[in-house]
Structure formats: C-alpha cells, structure tokens
C-alpha cells in the first residue's frame, strides 16, 4: 500500500514538472517592449479570442484565428511568414498556449504571448480597432 502511494506521489510530481517545463517554453513579450519594437520591425499579431470579442476591439493588423491541433492549419499558416515574429493574445490562457504550441510545432520559432493580453495593451495606450 505504501509503495503504491509513493508511486502515485512521484507520478503526480513528475506531471507537475512537465507542466512547468511546458509553461517555461512560452516566450512572453510585454506591451511596452512590443510598442518599442513595432517602430523597428513588423509583428504578425494573432488574436485567439472569439469573433465577437475581436469585433469589439483588437490590435491593429491582428488576425482572428482559433488554431486547432486536430485540423489542417496549413491554409492559415501560408499567410504567415516564418521570418517575422508572431505575437499572440487571448482571454483564455489555454487557447493561447495551444496556439503557441501548434505554431512552434509547425516551425515558427519567434512566437510570443502578449503579457496581460489586450487589457494591458489598452492600459498602456496601445491602439485598438
């Protein structure tokens, strides 16, 4: 009984460690850094919120998309450049992480999550449309 419990505890600890590693693989970009870098380089901005939220407010040139691990995203990927950084934001952290994971798996290397999402972008004075 004790050895079974020990195995269960070790399994749970290893699963938690895997989650932490996965979270650490996500590169964050602050709204301030994005604003600064926008003057020097072009970002591809992806909004993974609902169509309604996107219609209410979105960052200039953002594309509204929900990427799906189980479908062929190649048509959408053809519109993106692997040579330009991608910034992703959304309301649901899981959707954002899923989109980053799919893009990185497909060979996009410079993918960032916008720290604080569109709310922090607006608070900083970033333009929305």
Descriptive keywords:
129 residues; 13% strand; alpha/beta; Oxidized Rhodanese, domain 1; 5-stranded parallel sheet; signal
How does this model look, in words?
This protein is α/β, with parallel strands linked by helices and 129 residues long. The chain has a single domain (27-124), classed as Rhodanese-like domain (Oxidized Rhodanese, domain 1). It contains 6 helices and 5 strands; from the N terminus they run H-E-H-E-H-E-H-E-H-E-H. It has helices at residues 2-24, 31-38, 51-56, 74-77, 93-105, 117-124; strands at residues 27-29, 44-47, 63-64, 86-89, 111-114. Strands 1-5-4-2-3 form a 5-stranded parallel β-sheet. Strand 4 (86-89), helix 5 and strand 5 form a beta-alpha-beta unit. The protein is globular and about 35 Å long.
Number of strands: 5
Order of helices and strands: HEHEHEHEHEH
What is the CA-based Rg, rounded?
A: 17 Å
* CA(first)-CA(last) distance: 60 Å
Q: What is the tally of helical segments?
A: 6
Give the domain tally: 1
Overall morphology? globular
CATH fold topology: Oxidized Rhodanese, domain 1
Q: What is the CATH class designation?
A: Alpha Beta
> Low-confidence segments, ≥5 residues, pLDDT <50?
4-21
Q: Strand percentage, roughly?
A: 5-15%
Helix and strand composition category: alpha/beta
What's the main sheet like? 5 strands, parallel
What is the average of the pLDDT values?
81
Strand order, biggest sheet? 1-5-4-2-3
Q: Using the 3D structure, state the CATH architecture.
A: 3-Layer(aba) Sandwich
The percent range for helix content is 40-55%
- Identify the CATH homologous superfamily: Rhodanese-like domain
Protein name: Rhodanese-like domain-containing protein
InterPro entries: GlpE_sulfurtransferase, Rhodanese-like_dom, Rhodanese-like_dom_sf
Keywords: Signal
